[in-house]
Amino acid sequence: xxxxxxxxxxxxxxxxxxxxxxxxxxxxxxxxxxxxxxxxxxxxxxxxxxxxxxxxxxxxxxxxxxxxxxxxxxxxxxxxxxxxxxxxxxxxxxxxxxxxxxxxxxxxxxxxxxxxxxxxxxxxxxxxxxxxxxxxxxxxxxxxxxxxxxxxxxxxxxxxxxxxxxxxxxxxxxxxxxxxxxxxxxxxxxxxxxxxxxxxxxxxxxxxxxxxxxxxxxxxxxxxxxxxxxxxxxxxxxxxxxxxxxxxxxxxxxxxxxxxxxxxxxxxxxxxxxxxxxxxxxxxxxxxxxxxxxxxxxxxxxxxxxxxxxxxxxxxxxxxxxxxxxxxxxxxxxxxxxxxxxxxxxxxxxxxxxxxxxxxxxxxxxxxxxxxxxxxxxxxxxxxxxxxxxxxxxxxxxxxxxxxxxxx
Amino acid sequence: xxxxxxxxxxxxxxxxxxxxxxxxxxxxxxxxxxxxxxxxxxxxxxxxxxxxxxxxxxxxxxxxxxxxxxxxxxxxxxxxxxxxxxxxxxxxxxxxxxxxxxxxxxxxxxxxxxxxxxxxxxxxxxxxxxxxxxxxxxxxxxxxxxxxxxxxxxxxxxxxxxxxxxxxxxxxxxxxxxxxxxxxxxxxxxxxxxxxxxxxxxxxxxxxxxxxxxxxxxxxxxxxxxxxxxxxxxxxxxxxxxxxxxxxxxxxxxxxxxxxxxxxxxxxxxxxxxxxxxxxxxxxxxxxxxxxxxxxxxxxxxxxxxxxxxxxxxxxxxxxxxxxxxxxxxxxxxxxxxxxxxxxxxxxxxxxxxxxxxxxxxxxxxxxxx
Lengths: 408, 370
Hints:
A: Arc Repressor Mutant, subunit A, three-stranded antiparallel beta sheet, 10 helices, B: mainly alpha, metalloprotease (chain A)
């Protein structure tokens, strides 16, 4: 087991995370690439393109655009493979190949990320598939879109204004969800992200998984007794980068469940050491380590024959070297979900890396409920952060590298 | 000049052993011994005498004033209980005789009766002091051994030339000549160091002064003081005259001048490929080194690089499971058991063989009778 020296540890965990000008620039570039890809993806969802095709396109945009910048940086690229989850599935769904178009009017949650040298920008947004131009979406879909939108905006504003206390953030998200008759799905998190440490695996968000973890997560279990809350009241400070990842379901109660289909997204676990027996799995692991490093990856992106991947993966997953990230769905009578994820760098003038109304405007919806909270309304009235605009997608960036391989 | 009969504490030499023995008993010698213990330089006979006489004059004054504790004749080493007795003694023939005889002997201090005026004495004392220091240096130079530039500073080896001497001192004593690129006068430096050790008997590194060449050499070898200090400004200033252009402001921009000095130092290196003494390394003029084929097994290793990328090491560094991991993991436990088992097996085998061997004796021996 290789040991990380203390000095090295402090460099990796502390020094490299100081928001110097060049670091902010890398975050900015990563954020802009996300925005560009998101704009393209939202247009494709509006047009009703096949889900799998959009995923591959967004991946290729992120891969190609990151390849063009910072040529001296080795580690850059996709921080999270694109997933588009429909209706009751709220995260992690990625069809094999091109897939089929989603039915019009359903809620598509697109989620992906980009990183330059480990400085990561992640984004998720909820869009209506082939939204009609005649009228807004109504009903449960409208409620969850509103709830997730306002919760995210309010949390981002609180962070930007320097009031990012976990109890306040928790309160605001809960209130926004409650105002639309929705509930916050466990796993919703508002956390600090650091270089390479963006909560790739579930473990890091559970308590104690990550060193110097800072943030909060809506736990899977029942909420703890109220007395405990004061103990872990964390405050977002200037000079940090925070990730707001809000998942909202339309029903008051429900259960989350892993979707019963083969996972298409996997993540490497570097805490596990295991000697592999099969040669194919050794080759596969070498390729995974080299190509994706510490970030989750989709099977489409591996440069190997599909049957070799399947063969190798079985041993890798069994030994725990690679962990499958299954899509997750919400099981409830009214099972419509929405998700918003955004990244904000708390520099002198806070910089919202991803999302924001200029690129990811909320879907056109009409809810029967009202926010009923002047506090939240006034909070999100005037943004106290800068946003990044999307750039035009160059034609060549859309050429999907691995498409031939995946379609057959 | 130097004879076999010397006194090191008084830096004096004698013609015969009798004279040396007489000297050893003298007050002057005792005085110099005490000075040596106190770490002071020895005084010459004249200086000592003037000191004694000045002391006596004061003594006498005290005696006149009626000090009873001065009823002591220093010349005859006699003590008296009353003043009349003392005066009687001073006037006696015996006392006068010893007074006369002592200065003639010259090896024994002769406290003359203080007749000269005090001020003149003090001046004389100062003069003698100055003289004595020069004398000591002269004597030292005469007595000391001169170490030639081709002789080793730390042992009695002498080499053919300076370079081979330097080579000897580097290999045998670890002497490293500081900053050889700037060194201008290597011979001068060696002569200076040779004088410091051979004549001054002073250690190069610390302020230790040896009694003679052997002692200072032993000190330097034992304390690993076989080096030329070059750390502080004083160190550098001491040997700066042997270095070329050693002004402080020329540290950076005297590259052109240095090239010449460097050339002289490295001409040997750059002219032709040099074979190492072991015959395994060949230094080429280009600066690269070629190693012998027999070393290939060391150089041609493909050590698996365990280099992780930044991201991987970050993840590992932040993984708290690493901190929770038990020190004795399963795999270590297993390895430990195997090694323990092997050791036990080996010991059992040893015991068996040993027991067998003890039976292989030519004749029967009763254990009880031994």
